[in-house]
Specification:
Cobalt-precorrin-4 Transmethylase, domain 1, 3 helices, 4 strands
Length: 83
């Protein structure tokens, strides 16, 4: 299943409890920038060990999109929306 999580803008307290739960429990992340997502997890003291990060931008080729589709079909995946 694919979950969408918006990130807080400017104030780290603007995140929902559901978003925090998903950030902690999900192992696969699609991100615009993996560095930003890792900083976000660090901000909430969420360990990145055992988590996999994938870049999703408008420059991704068709083959990569197919592999992401397979990932989503077989795992819970979190799409991080960044400002």
């Amino acid at each position: 299943m694919l979950y969408f999580v918006p990130t807080p803008i400017g104030n780290k307290e603007d995140i929902t409890l559901r978003a925090l739960h998903l950030l902690k429990e999900t192992s696969f992340f699609l991100c615009e920038d993996t560095r930003t997502t890792k900083k976000l997890l660090s901000l909430y003291d969420i360990d990145t060990k055992g988590k996999e990060f994938y870049v999703l931008t408008s420059f991704i080729d068709e083959g990569k999109l197919k592999s992401y589709k397979n990932l989503i079909e077989n795992h819970d995946v979190l799409m991080i929306s960044e400002a």
